[in-house]
Amino acid sequence: MDLSSERTLKGSDQLGNLSKDLQAQLHVETAIRLKLGGVTIGISESVVVTWIIMVVLVGLAIFMTHGLSAEHPGKRQLILESAMGWCRDFFYGILGEDGARYIPYLTTVLLYLAVSNLIGLAGFKPPTKDLNVTIGLALMSIVLIEYSGWHQKGAKGFFKSFAEPMPIMTPINILELGIRPLSLCMRLFGNVLGSFVVMELLKAVCPAVLPIPFSLYFDIFDGLIQAYVFVFLTSLFIKEAIE
Fold first, then answer.
1. Comparing C-alpha atoms, which of 7, 3, 41, 220 is closest to residue 121?
2. What average pLDDT does range 196-215 have in this prediction?
3. How far apart are CA 199 and CA 164, in angstroms?
4. Contact between 197 and 84 (Cβ < 8 Å)
5. Which UniProt keywords apply (predicted)?
6. Contact indicator for 242, 148 with CB cutoff of 8 Å
7. What is d(CA 191, CA 69) in angstroms, rounded to the nearest whole number?
8. In whole numbers, what is the pLDDT of the chain averaged over residues?
9. Is the dihedral angle over the CA atoms 156, 161, 167, 173 positive or is it negative?
């Protein structure tokens, strides 16, 4: 066997391994099986990891808010106030006073997505690698977006907005009801999955050196960026709906 044939076989093996790894990442394992009245209910791995994230966030909230003092704030309280102040200023700058009621939801989603994308560092599969999770988040956001428009404009103003800026745009505005959640869902899912593919390719090309700095980017910074982009776009859509 000549050198070129050997390289071709190695390349085929690497692509085959990448395909298997990708399928494994896309496959959602059933972590828990419950039998209720003869019916077996499967609870997926992404749901269990989400429960873990919920416990972590609730525990962190209890820890950070315990023993707060207006007269003598400690370092923990100052960190908490700075973080919450940044979130409020960021979302308030986009939404304004009319959209301030949605800041708690957006902050919660931001925290959940940030922890979800970083939890892979602890050995768990990020829930955002499950398409069902990203679809659920996108549907929750689009329901909130449409509700915000209904709440701000009333039923008449809400339906009238589909004919703006001119009646000929009505079909396109109706299509946006499906396009917006699809774009939110696939952007989040695609970026998380794409980072995995890039990392696997880098490991195949140069497993000793290249993956280290790129791992820091994809495992930490890219996950935080995707959380930021998701809530940023949701905020923009809410702002557009309430104007």
1. 220
2. 67
3. 45
4. no
5. ATP synthesis, Cell membrane, CF(0), Hydrogen ion transport, Hydrolase, Ion transport, Membrane, Transmembrane, Transmembrane helix, Transport
6. yes
7. 41
8. 80
9. negative
Q: Give the count of beta carbons closer than 10 Å to the beta carbon of residue 230.
A: 24
Q: Is the pTM of this model over 0.70?
A: yes
- How many C-beta atoms surround the C-beta of residue 111 within 10 A? 19
- Give phi and psi for 186, each to the nearest 5: -70, -30
Residue with tokens 């700095």: 213
Hey, how many other C-beta atoms are within 10 angstroms of the C-beta on 112? 20
Q: Kindly tell me the burial class for residue 181, based on how many C-beta atoms sit within 10 Å of its own C-beta (0-12, 13-18, 19 or more).
A: buried
Q: Which two tokens stand for residue 36?
A: 């209720």
Identity (one letter) of the amino acid at 132? N
**What gap in Å lies between CA 103 and CA 30, rounded to an integer?**
34
Is the N-terminal amide bond of 207 cis, ω within 30° of 0?
no
Q: Say if residues 105 and 144 touch (Cβ distance below 8 Å).
A: yes
Is residue 229 within 8 Å of residue 183, measured between CB atoms?
no
Q: What is the DSSP string of 94-138?
A: HHTGGGGGGHHHHHHHHHHHHHHHHGGGGTPPPGGGSHHHHHHHH
Within 8 A by CB and 6+ apart from 226, the residues are 113, 117, 128, 187, 188, 191, 192
Pair type for strands 39-44 and 30-36: antiparallel
Q: What length does the chain have? A: 243
115 exposure class (CB count in 10 Å sphere: 0-12, 13-18, 19+): buried
The SS3 call for residue 178 is helix
**Are 145 and 237 spatial neighbours (Cβ–Cβ below 8 Å)?**
yes
Q: Check residue 34 and give left, alpha or beta (phi > 0: left; psi -120 to 50: alpha).
A: beta
Q: pLDDT for 16-47, tens place per residue?
A: 565 666 666 666 777 777 777 778 788 888 88
